[in-house]
Write a structure and sequence with these properties.
7 helices, single chain, two-stranded antiparallel sheet, 57% helix, 235 residues, 13% strand
């Protein structure tokens, strides 16, 4: 621990201001990165969550140390850890293509609340280090994740079609290329608002995708020109 911070680990006006100030600054930095990427929870959301967690931790200490209440000062903070899940769940959405979006933002909100608890408890080193590591994971590791994802052999086909015979033709063309299907998810108009339109998400087996990019592009072109297919995407 840093010896020069011992004064700010006690409960006094200067330490309370310093803890809340660090909570706003560090969460704001994380929030700016999320805001820049146009995620559901951005600058102000991260600040409010981190600041609220910081105040909660400070309140628990104040009740125990200053007012001498016979209570566990960490109890209020424990409720933040559990309760932040409800806010984080609001950032998670399921797209019409059955893809989950917002998990990273939700995890970041939960971690931002923990940072607030760190600052509220006077654990400045942990809060600052956690802020740095969160930014590292969201700004640097995200590029590594994107690079790895682009090089994975696994492909997902999303189509919207008008009749079941279209899907049979798609399966037949995949079998001709010896491309095996790992799983398939079907829906009938729930996501599109049109109950006459069907959609399918087809997950292809990684080991069976042996066609080169040109051949796969040709297959994609054949699907695209097929009558009855309204939307087609390779994910």
């Amino acid at each position: 621990m840093i010896d020069g911070l011992y004064y700010f680990r006690d409960i006094n006006f200067a330490s309370v201001f310093f803890r809340m100030f660090l909570a706003v600054i560090c969460s704001g930095i994380i929030g700016i990165e999320r805001e820049y990427k146009r995620r559901p929870a951005g600058f102000r959301t991260h600040i409010l969550i981190c600041l609220g967690a910081c105040i909660t931790s400070l309140t628990g200490q104040y009740l125990s140390i200053n007012l001498h209440y016979s209570t566990d000062m960490s109890r209020l903070g424990a409720q933040v850890v559990a309760g932040i899940g409800f806010i984080g769940a609001g950032a998670i959405i399921m797209t019409p293509k059955n893809q989950v979006r917002g998990l990273t933002t939700s995890a970041g909100l939960w971690t931002c609340a923990i940072i607030g608890l760190c600052f509220g408890g006077g654990f400045y080193e942990g809060g600052i280090l956690a802020t740095f590591l969160i930014l590292l994971s969201e700004m640097v590791f995200s590029k590594l994740e994107y690079w790895l994802t682009k090089r994975m052999p696994k492909k997902i086909i999303y189509i919207e079609y008008s009749s079941d015979t279209i899907l049979d033709r798609v399966f037949s063309m995949l079998r001709e290329k010896r491309i095996e299907i790992e799983s398939i998810q079907l829906s009938r108009g729930e996501n599109t608002g049109d109950y006459s339109l069907r959609s399918a998400v087809i997950y292809l087996e990684s080991h069976s995708i042996k066609v080169d990019n040109a051949e796969f592009d040709s297959l994609f072109h054949d699907f695209e020109n097929m009558d009855g297919i309204e939307t087609l995407e390779i994910i």
